[in-house]
Amino acid sequence: MNYIDQGSALSRKVPNRKLSKKNSLFYQQSVFENEEFMQKYEKNVDQLITVIEEPELKEVIQNRNERFFQVLEQIIKVESSIKEFAKGYQKYGFIVSDTGITYREWAPNAKELKLNEFGCTTDNGGNWEVFIPKDDDDNHQIQHGSTLITYCDQLERASVWSSVKKGEQAIFWNPDNKYEFQQQQLQQKQQSKGLKVIKQKATELQGVNGYNTIMITQQLLMQVDVNQITPDDLKRNIDTLHQKGFSVIMEIDHDLIGKHLNNWDGSGYQYLREGVEQLDYGKWEVLRLLLSNISFWITEYQIDGFKFTNIEIQDDIDATVYLMLANDLIHDLLPYGISIIQELDYPVLCRTIKEGGLGFDFRLSKLHHKQYKPKTLFENTGMYTQAQILNALVIGSGLIQEIADDKFVQFEQQFGWLHEDFAEVNEVDSVLQIKRGNFTFLINHTNENREIVLNLKINKILNKEDQKWEQLDENTIKLTIESEQGLIIE
Prior knowledge:
With about 500 residues, this protein is an alpha/beta fold. It has helices spanning about 25-35, 35-40, 50-55, 60-80, 80-85, 230-245, 255-260, 285-300, 315-335, 385-395, 405-415; strands at about 5, 10, 95, 100-105, 115, 120, 120, 125-135, 145-150, 150, 155, 165, 170, 195-200, 215, 225, 245-255, 305-310, 340, 360-365, 375-380, 400, 425-430, 430-435, 440-445, 450-455, 470-475, 475-480, 485-490. The protein has four domains: about 5-85, no CATH class; about 90-170, Immunoglobulin-like; about 190-405, TIM Barrel; about 415-490, Golgi alpha-mannosidase II (Immunoglobulin-like). About 25% of the residues lie in helices and about 25% in strands. The strands form seven sheets. An eight-stranded parallel β-barrel has the order 14-15-17-18-19-20-21-22, surrounded by four helices. Helix 4 (about 60-80) packs across helix 9 and helix 8 (about 285-300) runs parallel beside helix 9. Mean pLDDT is about 85; it is low at about 1-20. This is Glycoside hydrolase family 13 N-terminal domain-containing protein. One of its GO terms (molecular function) is 1,4-alpha-glucan branching enzyme activity.
């Protein structure tokens, strides 16, 4: 039969491959027509909610979905499911068994490959492999903590699939005792009360008052650098955060990954598009690697979700399909998992795949005035005013920032504004008035002070004790709000 195999984006036959029942034509057809598949996906574009609501989007959604289902069906034919396809880390890199160590790498343009002094053989389909048996004393020939160098022709490389590194070198990590998680992953939707995310490096993971989610920044593929933190210590820190009620998400920077993979096997087009420093999302092994990266962190480190950055999809349908597959995988492995996309001018990012969207839970946006979108997050890099930060918390779904001592975030944590799903939004003389739960928020985005009259009774102003107001009658007040400031009224 014809199917896609490793190292090629074209259907072809591979000699001597044994096909199990899951590869049979009957199995493939039954998978695409069974009840589970039909509940999860809608292939008729005219039945998609997004197309019904916005018919002008039909063409772009139809083209995108046709490619998505084409790739999905190819994955199911070869691997039976996205989850199985995304277990590349169990097939590539350094696989330890009771009898020895198997090393596999995809390097289609290499003429020769060695791991340290051990020569690899190739299947002529781009895959290289060597099995290193245990010695006569039943010990692995490579010791825990040893440096692993892949010699790709004349190039010295660290395996793309290495999960532990020391600086730029791959490390064989096989300790006698490994840390076992005590706490389960995300058990409820943090979305219900909004995300307040603080960025931290893997070496600095700790809970911070005012936040409910920690984001590990700039992690590169499946690699933990023992110069910074050991795998066991990272797992222990994540476990501690889970026990305290924090979610832990990870940033995937596709630009960094592309630069890391560029020219790995000596060519400029192994994982990247030829002549362009950009990942080739249409390649089978690029998809396997990127999806396996997601599966690895969820499975091995109990990561609760991901923020996808530096990926351009406006004119790249393959990149769009990759993001759909990634969201499908995340929410399959972790039903309450979190997926966040950087700000993109692209339709229906945060609708489910069955509705015709890309499946993200949140999109990042700039801190715009009046923006009331429940699936919007705002990123604060320290360049925003108090009014904008408060706007992000009470109008949008939450905030991502690097500053740990923001008073507005701490107020929100203390009083729990975002536990209320409904917010009533009005504008009075260019001042935004939001009623949410027992609180009223007055936000002045303008660059001048504003005097306003409101039908409001003030018991207490939480964030500015010296704020003055004039009580015109029992239920009417007059006050002045300074430029770019916000008031929290109880």
